């Protein structure tokens, strides 16, 4: 057996910022070298950031990716780090002749091995995910190789993200190739409770291949996606050896005892078990094992519970959206209700209360307790606040245009949206919308009113979970949160009956069923794609099924115009769920 010290670079790249990502690679590699690592593994498409979407269709972007990779290899050598092998993801091209049905440029979701100033290995993802948030058939062609490099006597194989999740392909031939270690760069987006699925997957693949496995995952927010890290190392029996934290950057260093290989060098084709042939390419970096040393114990970070991980995901998403898009501050309407209270709290934890601005906009229908609850939150959190009464502004509109009923109610929301957008325009604030998933699902929001803004922190959070997260945050904190206030959300905002307060004595239950009933039905219809008959068979009231399906289906045009927000469920409104706006299909209950 031979020893290897592996450094897992659980990092937060910025899409399109190749220069900064390359500088980050250099800094993290230097850190790994100082900690005695023999190999550093970065994440999928680290140099370009992930996902790059249609940027990959531009020749200039792919050229820059390839040039940056070559320059990084040379820079590592100049900086005295060339002897430390680095595995890193980037975008490459296959060099295929253009043909119909092939993405422009035939780009590759690629990974490379850098050593001694050279790009020693170039490989590419074989399985291209085309489900959920992924559109990789649109962007890439698949790879057909499994590179294996010998490092201090140990044969190390490289596969990329989805190749671990699917049967067949490169991972299926790792065992046939006799590799002692499989390293997998990933950009695997967060969904609640996904960490248990990942660990089981890594353990199963390690057992199938008969070798240790290193799973390195990206961390950070990118538009609607959040990457949670949670990098994992398991041994050949699938036992957990080390695990990085969630929602935080980390260089996880782990020592492994691995078998020494004497397999022949060269290229060898193998049946991949998915109807394709994978060629195993072997190269040698070094054959002699390192001198024995005292290994450091593997660190296994404590797992977050459900509410802690969801809340941490939302905080990270807001923090990165603000920072990566160059905003200095955020602004939102604060009503005294639970949705705006939770949104303000997430923002304060993400960027600090001093950069959060709230506007209290009471109308003729606002209750005294709502204004008091909003003022209490301002006092507890220390956010910047101002009061802009809207009654006279609404009156001015009503003098010029005759509105009644719902149109008159929505005017109030649109006045509030106009005020927020005006202040955003004046001061450069990012407007945060405060709608939750239950409201978005049923269309219980005002287009160009409370839907006006640039980012929607709780867009994918059902109403019942809004309450759960608020109670959790009042009882807990995390070191990465930037607000020190204890119990930052007033209890009355959590306990009172929800109301839009757009007419006298209004309650959400005037228009919607109780949220605990509604959210169960929405979960089955939206998340699980059940039809009406399936919903009734699952125990939902037939009349309510008909009513809620109608609300959800008619609100599609509203959701299409809603700002982006972080995905925390298996099917968010956005990249996950794509339905036609013009659509006459209707579910029937009988």
From TrEMBL:
The EC number(s) given in the record are: 6.3.5.1
The protein, known as: Glutamine-dependent NAD(+) synthetase
Q: Where does L-glutamine bind?
A: 131, 188, 194
* Pathway of action: Cofactor biosynthesis; NAD(+) biosynthesis; NAD(+) from deamido-NAD(+) (L-Gln route): step 1/1
Question: Where on the tree of life does the source sit, at the highest rank?
Answer: Bacteria
Please give the residue ranges the record annotates as the region Disordered: 481-513
Q: Where is the composition biased (Basic and acidic residues)?
A: 498-510
Q: Which reaction does it catalyse?
A: deamido-NAD(+) + L-glutamine + ATP + H2O = L-glutamate + AMP + diphosphate + NAD(+) + H(+)
Signal peptide residues are: none
Q: Give the residues the record marks as binding deamido-NAD(+).
A: 410, 439, 558
Q: In which residues is ATP bound?
A: 333-340, 434
Any Gene Ontology CC annotation: cytoplasm
SUPFAM superfamilies, per the entry: Adenine nucleotide alpha hydrolases-like, Carbon-nitrogen hydrolase
Report the function annotation for this chain.
Answer: Catalyzes the ATP-dependent amidation of deamido-NAD to form NAD. Uses L-glutamine as a nitrogen source.
């Amino acid at each position: 057996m031979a020893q290897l010290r592996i450094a897992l670079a659980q990092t937060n790249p910025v899409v399109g910022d190749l220069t900064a990502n390359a500088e980050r690679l250099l800094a993290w590699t230097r850190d790994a070298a100082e900690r005695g690592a023999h190999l550093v593994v970065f994440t999928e498409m680290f140099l370009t950031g992930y996902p790059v979407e249609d940027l990959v269709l531009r020749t200039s972007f792919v050229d820059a990716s390839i040039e940056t990779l070559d320059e990084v290899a040379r820079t590592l050598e100049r900086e005295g780090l060339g002897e430390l092998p680095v595995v890193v993801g980037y975008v490459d091209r296959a060099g295929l002749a253009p043909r119909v049905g092939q993405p422009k440029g035939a780009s590759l979701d690629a990974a490379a091995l850098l050593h001694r100033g050279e790009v020693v290995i170039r490989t590419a993802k074989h399985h291209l995910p085309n489900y959920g948030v992924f559109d990789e058939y649109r962007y890439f062609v698949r790879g057909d190789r499994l590179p294996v490099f010998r490092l201090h006597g140990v044969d190390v194989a490289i596969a990329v993200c989805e190749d671990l999740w699917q049967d067949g392909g490169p991972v299926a031939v790792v065992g046939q190739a006799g590799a002692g270690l499989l390293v997998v760069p990933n950009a695997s987006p967060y969904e609640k409770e996904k960490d248990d699925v990942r660990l089981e997957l890594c353990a199963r693949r390690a057992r199938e291949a008969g070798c240790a496995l290193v799973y390195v995952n990206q961390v950070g927010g990118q538009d609607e996606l959040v990457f949670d890290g949670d990098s994992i190392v398991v041994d050949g029996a699938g036992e957990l050896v080390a695990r990085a934290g969630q929602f935080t950057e980390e260089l996880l260093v782990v020592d492994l005892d691995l078998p020494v290989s004497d397999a022949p060098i060269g290229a060898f084709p193998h049946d991949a078990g998915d109807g394709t042939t994978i060629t195993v390419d072997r190269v040698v970096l070094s054959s002699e094992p390192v001198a024995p040393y005292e290994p450091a114990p593997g660190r296994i970070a404590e797992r977050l519970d459900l509410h802690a991980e969801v809340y941490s995901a939302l905080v990270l998403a807001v923090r990165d959206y603000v920072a990566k898009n160059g905003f200095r501050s955020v602004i939102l309407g604060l009503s005294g209700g639970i949705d705006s209270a939770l949104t303000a709290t997430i923002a304060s934890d993400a960027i600090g209360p001093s950069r959060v601005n709230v506007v209290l906009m009471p109308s003729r229908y606002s209750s005294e307790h709502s204004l008091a609850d909003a003022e209490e939150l301002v006092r507890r959190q220390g956010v910047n606040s101002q009061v802009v009464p809207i009654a006279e502004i609404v009156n001015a509109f009503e003098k010029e245009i005759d509105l009644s009923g719902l149109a008159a109610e929505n005017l109030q929301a649109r006045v509030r949206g106009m005020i927020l957008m005006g202040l955003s325009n004046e001061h450069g604030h990012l407007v945060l919308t405060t709608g939750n998933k239950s409201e978005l699902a049923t269309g219980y929001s005002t287009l160009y009113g409370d839907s006006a803004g640039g980012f929607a922190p709780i867009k994918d959070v059902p109403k019942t979970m809004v309450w759960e997260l608020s109670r959790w945050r009042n009882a807990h904190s995390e070191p990465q949160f930037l607000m020190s206030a204890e119990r930052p959300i007033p209890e009355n905002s959590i306990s009172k009956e929800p109301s839009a307060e757009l007419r006298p004595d209004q309650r959400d239950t005037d228009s919607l069923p109780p949220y605990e009933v509604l959210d169960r039905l929405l979960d089955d219809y939206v998340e699980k794609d059940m039809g009406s008959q399936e919903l009734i068979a699952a125990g939902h009231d037939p009349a309510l099924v008909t009513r809620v399906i109608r609300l959800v289906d008619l609100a599609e045009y509203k959701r299409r115009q809603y700002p982006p927000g972080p995905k925390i469920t298996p099917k968010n409104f956005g990249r996950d769920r794509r339905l036609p706006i013009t659509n006459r299909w209707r579910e029937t209950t009988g």
